Every structure is written in structure tokens, then in C-alpha cells.
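Our preliminary data section would be incomplete without showing what the modeling component actually yields. Below, a chain of 159 amino acids is followed by its predicted structure, encoded as C-alpha cells that our downstream tools consume directly.
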Amino acid sequence: MIQRLEHLLTRCLEALLIIGFLFLLALVVIQVFLRYVLNTSITGANEVIIILFVYTTAIGGAIAAGRREHIALTFAIDWLPSKARHLVDQLGLFLVAAINAITVWFSFHWISITGDYLMPSTGLPRIVAQLSIPLGCGLATLYCLTKVFTLKNDKEVAS
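Predicted structure:
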């Protein structure tokens, strides 16, 4: 059941990423055309591009953590017996979840202090961009904890 929900969440997030990247690509192409051909631009488009990039990076990072595609040095772990490797793998996932959860916790304090400041071009409050941090790290925490509690055999550990 948990794995099915995780798969559904991943598919929804991937669809959101595709839409975000397509919009980002279209906006960049339009901006380049406007700037170099018509010598004009869309006010605030660069800020929107940056915000989209930040959100797609945060969500993509969470999905990568869920797929266990984060950076890992496994040369020492590969020598361990199967059960020990499984425990170390679960500990690693738990630690990644803990780091992300701590980041979520501290990001809310930072956002409460600076989130009301306005971005210069769009006039949007900075919280619009800053919420990408608790969103991405919260999703990464969720994915890692799901893996910790559903990881059962060495085939999943090795992949």
C-alpha cells in the first residue's frame, strides 16, 4: 500500500516536473528571442525562470532520494555481509531523512524572517521561492523514511 502511494506521488511529481521544465524552456526561448531579435523582454521573467528552476531542482532531488540515486560511496559497504549491508543502508537512508527533516525545521524560521521581502522585478514575496526548500526536503524525508520502513531484501538494497 505504501509503495503504491509512493509510486503515485512520484508519477504526479514527475508530471509536475515535466510541465515545469516545458514552461521554463518556453520562457527561456521567448526571452532570448525577445532580447536578441526585438530588443525587449518580459519584466520579471528572469525571476520566474529562477523560481521554476529552484522548484524543479528541489522536487527532482526528492525524487532522486526516493529512487536512491543520491551520492553514495559504497566501496566499504559492498564488502559487508548481506544483513550488515542492509542495516547500514537503512541507517544511511535514516540519516539522509534526518538531515532533510532538520533542514525543513530550520527553513521555517528563515522564511518567517525573510519571506515577506519582495522580489525586485515581479514584486512577489520571497516566500514564493523559499518554500521550495521545505517542500523538496520534506518530500526527500518522506521518500527516505518510506524506503527505511519498506526496504526488505538485498535486491532493493543493491539497486
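Residues 2-158 form one domain. The mean pLDDT is 90. Preliminary results of this kind motivate Aim 1 of the renewal.
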